[in-house]
Amino acid sequence: MTESKTDSGGHPWPWLVLCGLLVVLGPVLAIGSTVVKFGDESKKDRLRSVGVPVIATVIDSDSSTNKTLDKTTISYQVDGETFTSTIKGLPAGPTMLILIDRDDPTSFLADNGSTDDSRHPLNHWANIPWGVVLAGLGVARLVTHHRARRKAAPFPAPPRKTTTLNKRGKR
C-alpha cells in the first residue's frame, strides 16, 4: 500500500516553490505595472504638450463585450514612411487624430486617449492590487506552513538541572 503524500506528512517542496513564486511574481507584477502605467501617463502628458498632430487611418476595429479588449489598428504616415499600430479602444470614425513624437514617430497619443503602449500586458491599473494579493497569499501560506512545521516538531527535552558541588563534593 502506498503512502499518500499530504501537506502534513509529505514533501513540502512543491508548496514552498509555489509560495516562493507567488512571493516573487506578485511584487514583480505590482511594481512592473506601476512603472509601465506611470510611464504611459507621463508619455500622454509629454505628447499633449509637444506632440505633432497627424491624421491616422483606421484599418481595423474589433469591438468586444469587454471594453478593455476593444482594439483598433491604425496606419499613419510621417515623412513618407508608413507606420501601423494596434491600440486599445474604439475610434469615433474612419480617421483619428494622433499626436506623434517628432524624434520617435512610433510613439504617439491617439484622440481616444490610447498610446502606442496601451496594449502592453502590464498597462492595467488592476494588475497592481492583483500583484499585492498574490504576494500576500504566498507570504500567508509560507507563514502557516512554518507554524505547522514548528507545531508538529517534537518538544525538546527540558534542560538538565546542573548541580554544583563544593570542594568536598557535596551539594
Automatic annotation (TrEMBL):
Record field: compositional bias (Polar residues): 162-171
Keywords from the UniProt entry: Membrane, Transmembrane, Transmembrane helix
Domain of life: Bacteria
Residues passing through the membrane, by range: 12-36
Region annotation Disordered: where it falls in the sequence: 148-171
Name of the protein this chain belongs to: Uncharacterized protein
